[in-house]
Amino acid sequence: MDAGEADHHGGALPVSAPAVRDRPSPHAHGLDHGAATALDYAVTSIPTTPLCPKIILEGTRLTGKTDLAFALNEHPRIVGPRRYRYHSPLVSAEWSGLSNQAWGPSLIDFGPELADPALETYRTWVRMFELQRYYSWIVDRFHLSTRVHQARLGRHYDFGWLEERLAPLGFVVVLCTRAPATFPAARAERLKVSGNPSQYDDLSTFVREQEELRAAAASSRLPVLELEVADRGIPELADAVADFLDERDLLRLPA
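Predicted structure:
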């Protein structure tokens, strides 16, 4: 593992601090014992604090959340510079693992009969985040999407307890949005690859959900960045997220 690449905490070592376990022995470079010992001390005494940002991406469809999630998961300012791909975690409430059904209910659209396992999954995730707090976590849709979807059906879930536990870990919400007039162009691009094009017939559904997510984000106790995605490339958007975290000292946790 090279300098600046992911360490065993999942964050990234500062570029100036070589990873100790994979560096060659100083003796291999012809250094005498005294020089080798000094180099060993210089390397091992450099303090290392892992990058461990925690980002929840929210937004309606056609706002590029998943592409942004993958980009953030390889962004050098988010996870550190790398020379090879690394398995930093990417979590999603859209996973449909609550039933033995293809494209079945997820943590967002579960029915009342699955409320208990769905909420238990949220409790499990937040406990994982607490135990692995010095790891970077990127979440593609989470509790705000659940709140909005369930409220639309007359079912109201209070996730205040969840945010109380997420806030000390440094979680932020990035709400991906686009101007209503830009949805048709985004749909045209998506239809080139979609296996279920009919789900994009009524764009007013997405515009309405976007406003509902805005309202949910406004009541969140987590820091929120509303990110306009129209006419902006993924690299630019990823840089904007990195800037937001950096300005708030949320790329790392206090030692």
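Summary: Residues 115-131 form the longest helix (17 residues).
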